[in-house]
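[step 3/7] fold_predict: job queued, chain A
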Amino acid sequence: MFCLYNSMNKVLSVMNKIVIFEGPEGAGKSSQVKALAEVLEARGERVTIVKNPGTTELGKAVRSLLVQRDTPFPAAVESQALLMLASIYDTYKSVVVPAFKRGDWVLCDRWIDTTVIFQGMGKTNLVELISNTYRTMMFIGYSDSALLSKEAF
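[step 4/7] structure written:
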């Protein structure tokens, strides 16, 4: 766990160590995740890498439906958002939580922000639905920060 201390050396908060890389396909997120993992591992840190969607079996199925296609998947944008949220939740419960318990750094190749942008800000404004569903599922809210690629979405 990573702790923040004040000037009197008292623990202010304990945080899980997570870095999220967001950006469009081909922006270099995976390369940056790999580079950071190498730096952290060279310092003796344990690292768990997740790709959303795609880390768990559910995530791989969602990725094949929504991402790895030549044509858009013929489903309502609300359904697409819920599939992405299901993938995030599955990854969180089965991979991220155990990594946090081990004290690992978790490096994410996409998390919630991409879902908010792609499914939430499209033809229909689903940002509130996605945000509320995410918070309800995760009980953790948003991360404090995310690294965004310089390419526009």
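[step 5/7] annotate
Residues 77-102 form the longest helix (26 residues).
The beta strands are 2-5, 11-15, 17-22, 47-51, 105-109, 147-148.
exit 0
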